[in-house]
Amino acid sequence: MAYIMVDVESDGPIPGDYSMISFGAVLVNESLNTSFYGQLKPVSEQYIPEALAVSGFTREETLQFDEPQKVMQDFAAWLKENCKDRPVFISDNNGFDWMFICWYFHHFTGANPFGHSSQNLGSLYKGIVKDTFQNFKHLRKTKHTHHPVDDATGNAEALLTLKKEYGLKIKW
């Protein structure tokens, strides 16, 4: 299995009514040097200015981004090229990130290469330390900037720490 750490930035809380503005994905391995970055033109006229502001982009800038179908096709090709077998979706907040990626894949390509499931890094960490009040974010090395590749990289670093220092069994 190939673990793919994903982070999504959007202009609202749900796909379809609002838009995924950008996302980053990092192939989890020792080097963390294989990544994908997509910027997507909005699919809706609706947006929440405060949500969009988190991404650092203006609405006018996002209107110049790539067509979502092209970005999702490119991401599917990247996954196929970089994953020898089934890719496993993992993120810091998979409830949020997964719904956007899943919706966009199905809507724009007809299929989701990740299948029907995802994993949550935060929940994994809570289970390892046996404390639901704990947070993994101190394990990141890369600063959390809201650039999705930076954020996915930091989360992938945390996952590698779970393998090295906590004995998590994970293969790539």
From TrEMBL:
**Keyword line:** Exonuclease, Hydrolase, Nuclease
Q: Supply one GO molecular-function term.
A: exonuclease activity
Entry's InterPro entries? RNaseH-like_sf (IPR012337), RNaseH_sf (IPR036397)
Q: Which GO terms describe its biological process?
A: DNA metabolic process
Residues that span the membrane, as ranges? none
What is the recorded name of this protein? Exonuclease
Protein species of origin? Chitinophaga flava
